[in-house]
Design brief:
With 770 residues, this protein is of the alpha+beta class. Strand 7 and strand 8 (385-392) form a beta hairpin.
Length: 770
């Protein structure tokens, strides 16, 4: 902050601007807090101060720095300003913006009283000076509220109190929305406005009438916490003295009368008075004529000054109008360019039909950018030929002629070679300048189309040129670098779209071929699938038949072995007894395998019967565990049961659940080393909709890469010893039985620490749809 208010913090600590600097506020109201005249006065005075101190170059740099500092505080780049924008007095700004500008002017100028000096020298605009010239000083101060409202409409309230011909009491205060923009820096901002305003008001007598500036007496100030600023201005008026001529005339008359009485003592007093009145009246008339002439000259000067001011304002308005018209033209051009880019982007994403893409793109370019003609042609890099040109904006016969051309392109120094071989864009202001570098066929095409200005850009995809895009106009020097840049952007998008369309066409052709092959392969696979299903049915039937056929001799073998072990065939020695026990063990193992194969065959054939009935899982688990405790005790393994809550009955096939639990607990005992533990736990899940049973062991565990295959048929883990391995059907059958009972089964395992197999069974039976 400036040193004028050392107790207040700098406005710049506010950071970025919170309010829009100009245009419309967030509620759609026009921002008219401060006139552009105020901003222009600050910028011009900054330039003058820096120029006097450091030269014109430094002054220009200071104004550039001012715009740059302001833009750093404006969050939205759409509202960034330039020095030229700040000098436009027809703009309007928010007071927040003006306060930032005031602070930056103090910093860049090095003048801590910058606002006072600026208000004194620059803030009273020439229009106010010209309009106020016919009035007296006291009338100017009376009109102060009117002029204030004109240039700070809706943001500052002005009042004129006691006005005399030598003094004036004036007041100023802000509207509430301005204080919102000042935020916590209310005193600092008020101080800046107070300084510039009272300095400008004190300069009225000097700027308008050439008198000494008015003296200022501060009576109240918002920067000191008062509700408003109040000043008393006093000045010395300059008044015409028409009685001076009368006094001079009277003195001349008196001297004439005295002289006449002395020279002609015989004259009477009426005669003396008559003689002396003539020179007095002459002097008075001469003085009156002089004053009148001065007044006429002053009025003529005022008229001339106002005429010059009006001419100046007329030129400024005309320049502003011309700038506005040019801006409108540039805006239309930009809108056309953006529309074209948008349409090109839409065409890229909306169509893959090559012909439709070319047609729509050429017509969009011509319509939006108002070129006379637009042409696209393609380039065969192997044959070095430009071909298949599509031209819009010409009669049908000219378009047909252009499409029939095949222009050899082998010389990289020619226009065609520079464009298609070198891949460089071409801007030709007058085609006659490059006539010798054109191929004869291109010259012929230029003659029939009457092209003068040309822009041609390559269509490039993945580093290779596939063609060119050309636009032209009838007049020479009708295209510029901006047109070239736009066409480069359009060409890039169009080239990508054409590449996508070509790739799509290739994919379509491949797709058609693949569809035919897929149909043929599908027919073959359907035939093969029918054969596989037939073979699978035969396999299931074979397994079922073989299993049934094997059970009978196995039963006989078991009976014979048991009879021999019981001594029905005589006494057995130890070796014979050992062999028979091994035979009995393998008979049991083979019987279990046959049972598993039969179950698996029935499940795959869909012949596994399921009888849903209420089952008390807690009692069932306890019974199964009690039946397997002797098996676990033989391996020094403890089996524990833990019911976490009172279990509801489940709707399931009791035999299936028994088979699943027996398999899981048997596996846990089988793969748990001596002194290990098997824990069977139950709990309620999903708000008593199902019951979960888990069997955890402290065995070898399962490798992570084997977990997805645990429930596959005939799968046996690599970490399981050969002695403990089975046929690999138990878990597959368990999974099928759980799913038949509408449950789910899964496994969790940590290698070296053990595994936990869990499954769920629903509590309610399914609703039958009769």
């Amino acid at each position: 902050m400036s040193q004028l208010l050392p107790k207040d913090r700098s406005i710049l600590e506010k950071g970025q601007m919170e309010f829009r600097p100009f245009g419309l506020d967030i509620d759609g109201r026009k921002i008219r807090d401060a006139s552009g005249i105020t901003v222009r006065a600050n910028v011009e005075y900054l330039r003058e101060v820096v120029s006097r101190a450091r030269g014109e170059q430094a002054a220009a740099e200071a104004v550039e720095a001012l715009a740059r500092l302001l833009n750093q505080r404006i969050p939205d780049s759409a509202y960034h300003v330039t020095p030229q924008f700040l000098l436009n007095q027809w703009n309007s700004y928010s007071y927040e913006f003006v306060m930032f500008l005031a602070e930056f002017c103090i910093i860049l100028s090095g003048d801590q009283q910058f606002q006072y000096h600026m208000g004194q020298d620059k803030l009273i605009s020439p229009i106010i000076q010209a309009l106020g010239r016919p009035f007296g000083v006291h009338r100017i101060y009376k009109m102060f509220p009117h002029f204030g409202q004109k240039y700070a409409k809706g943001s500052i309230h002005f009042e004129s109190e006691t006005i005399t011909d030598r003094s004036a009491v004036l007041r100023m205060k802000f509207h509430e929305h301005v204080y919102q923009q000042f935020g916590p820096y209310r005193k600092s901002c008020s101080f800046h406005v107070c300084q510039s305003s009272k300095a400008a008001l004190a300069a009225f007598p000097f700027l308008i009438y050439g008198l000494s500036p008015a003296t200022i007496t501060d009576r109240r100030c918002m920067a000191e916490g008062d509700e408003y600023c109040e000043w008393e201005f006093t000045w010395v008026p300059r008044e015409p003295r028409p009685w001076g001529g009368a006094v001079a005339g009277a003195m001349v008359s008196a001297l004439t009368a005295t002289g006449a009485a002395t020279v002609y003592p015989t004259l009477r007093w009426p005669q003396v008075l008559a003689i002396s009145a003539f020179p007095g009246v002459t002097v008075w008339l001469a003085n009156w004529v002089r004053l009148l002439s001065l007044s006429v000259r002053e009025r003529d000067r005022m008229v001339q000054e106002q005429a010059r001011f009006s001419d100046t304002r007329h030129e400024e308005l005309r320049e502003a109008y011309l700038v506005q018209e040019q801006a409108a033209v540039d805006l239309k051009r930009r809108i056309g360019q953006l529309t074209l880019l948008y349409q090109t982007g839409m065409m890229v994403s909306s169509t893959l039909d090559r012909e439709a893409l070319i047609h729509n793109a050429l017509h969009a370019i011509k319509h939006n950018l108002h070129f006379d003609r637009v042409m696209i042609s393609f380039f065969d890099a192997e044959r070095k030929v430009a071909y298949d040109a599509r031209l819009v904006g010409v009669p049908a016969e000219v378009a047909a002629f252009a499409r029939s051309l095949e222009t050899p392109t082998t010389d990289s120094s020619s226009i065609e070679g520079e464009l298609l071989i070198e891949g460089r864009p071409i801007l030709v202001q007058d085609i006659t300048d490059v006539w010798d570098r054109l191929h004869p066929l291109s010259r012929k095409l230029a003659e029939v189309t009457h092209a003068r200005s040309i822009v041609a850009v390559p269509l490039r995809v993945k580093g290779r040129v596939i063609g060119s895009l050309t636009v032209d106009r009838h007049q020479h020097h009708a295209l510029n670098a901006e047109d070239l840049d736009v066409m480069m952007t359009v060409a890039n998008q169009l080239a990508i779209a054409l590449e996508h369309a070509a790739a799509y066409n290739e994919v379509e052709e491949l797709n058609a071929s693949l569809e035919e092959k897929v149909r043929m392969r599908t027919a073959e696979l359907e035939t093969a699938n029918d054969k596989l299903q037939e073979l699978n049915q035969l396999k299931s039937a074979f397994v079922s038949v073989v299993s049934h056929e094997l059970r009978t001799p196995l039963t006989a073998i078991r009976s014979f072995v048991e009879n021999m072990l019981d001594g029905m065939t005589g006494n057995l020695n130890d070796k014979q007894s050992t062999y028979l026990k091994r035979m009995l063990f393998n008979v049991d193992r083979l019987s279990r395998l046959i049972v598993d194969l039969l179950d698996l065959s029935r499940i795959e054939a869909g012949r596994m019967e399921i009888k849903l009935q209420p089952v008390d899982l807690a009692d069932l688990v306890d019974d199964i565990v009690d039946g397997l405790r002797s098996l676990a005790a033989g391996k020094s393994i403890s089996v524990e049961v833990r019911h976490q809550s009172v279990l509801p009955h489940v709707a399931a096939d009791r035999d299936h659940i028994t088979q699943v639990l027996t398999n899981l607990i048997g596996n846990a005992v089988k793969f748990t080393p001596p002194q290990g533990t098997v824990l069977v736990s139950t709990c309620v899940r999903d708000a008593e909709e199902s019951v979960q049973i888990s069997v955890a062991d402290t065995g070898c565990g399962i490798a992570h890469d084997e977990l997805p295959r645990v429930f596959d048929k005939f799968f046996r883990g690599a970490a399981i010893s050969k002695d403990a391995r089975g046929a690999g059907l138990g878990l597959a059958i368990a999974k099928s039985l759980v799913e038949l009972n509408r449950g789910q089964i899964w496994v969790e395992s940590v290698p070296g620490e053990g595994s936990t197999f869990s499954f769920t069974i629903p509590c309610q039976a399914p609703v039958r749809d009769d």
